[in-house]
Design goal:
It contains two helices and five strands, in the order E-E-E-H-E-H-E. It has 81 residues and is of the alpha/beta class. It has one domain. A five-stranded mixed sheet has the order 1-4-2-3-5, sandwiched between helices. Strand 2 and strand 3 form a beta hairpin. The chain is flat, with a radius of gyration of 13 Å.
Length: 81
């Protein structure tokens, strides 16, 4: 399942994207960060395609952030880094 929530990122700061995996128990983990939006979407598609072949449920999300908001986004989304 693909998800891309929208969040505000400071316009004067460089925007990065992070890829998050949620396992079947609802626990979220940081898979990869410091990516462009295009790279994040490509990585997510790869992981989603691989997850579809596995017996257990996994979901993937991408979130935008900048240097000043990364920890806030991780905390808000309940991610185990």
């Amino acid at each position: 399942m693909l998800h891309t929530p929208i969040t505000q990122v400071g316009r004067s700061e460089k925007e990065f994207w992070m890829l998050i995996r949620q396992d079947e128990h609802g626990v979220r983990y940081l898979v990869k960060d410091n990516m462009s939006q295009m790279s994040a979407e490509r990585e997510m598609r790869m992981f989603v395609e691989a997850a579809e072949r596995k017996p257990h449920k996994q979901e993937y999300f991408i979130f935008p952030y900048c240097a000043s908001t990364k920890l806030e986004v991780l905390a808000r989304e309940r991610v185990r880094a």
